[in-house]
Amino acid sequence: MTGPHDHTHSHDHADHSHDHDRWKHDGVRVIPGDQLDPNVPSTAGMDRKAAINFARVGAQKLWAGTVTIRPDAKTGAHHHGHLESIIYVVKGKARMRWGEHLQFTAEANPGDFIFIPPYVPHQEINASRDEVLECVLVRSDGQAVAINLDIEPVEKPETVLWIDPVHRDPAETK
């Protein structure tokens, strides 16, 4: 008797031994945290290290690594060309400044994500006087781009709070 759960159909049991090693060196890669590459375009005040990029693993569309900023330090103003960037704060308190004169600011804590669109001039600041700022950084290309800028920052930037455009409070739209 055959029914909807009949499992008598045949499976192709051809020899797939040549596929056995197919993904061995071109599949998943684990890059140990103590083997990151410090030879990446840098910006004064920060220590960037690459984990995932084109040169290391053949990544075509992503770059990932770490960034460390010592206590009470800040980077120079810069942007990342056509790339989108995501920063995930692991430890410490990040203060971001951005805009043509770094006139906007926002802070991020451990567990927070920061999104930086293409060509946006910005600066990362360690907002703590005694704790290192440690972040994970992801970019939208396998090549690193960092263009350092000579910007005269405004003295008092405007704080900008994020408003979730998807889950906006209905009372705000009235």
Structural overview:
The chain is mainly beta. It has a domain at 48-163: Jelly Rolls (Sandwich). Helices cover 2% and strands 30% of the residues. The protein is built from 1 helix and 11 strands; from the N terminus they run βαββββββββββ. The strands form 3 sheets. Strands 1-2-9-4-7 form a 5-stranded antiparallel β-sheet. A 4-stranded mixed β-sheet has the order 8-5-6-11, with no helix packed on it. The chain has a two-stranded antiparallel ribbon with strand order 3-10. Strand 5 and strand 6 (104-108) form a beta hairpin. The radius of gyration is 23 Å and the shape is globular.
Radius of gyration, taken over Cα atoms and rounded to an integer in Å:
23 Å
The assigned structural class equals: mainly beta
The proportion of residues forming helix, as a percent range, comes to under 10%
Query: How many alpha or pi helices?
Result: 1
Shape label: globular
CATH class of the domain at 48-163: Mainly Beta
**CATH topology annotation of the domain at 48-163:** Jelly Rolls
Instruction: Give me the count of strands.
Output: 11
Helix and strand run: EHEEEEEEEEEE
Q: CATH H-level name of the domain at 48-163... which superfamily?
A: Jelly Rolls
Strand order of the largest sheet: 1-2-9-4-7
Residue stretches low in confidence (pLDDT < 50, at least 5 long) are none
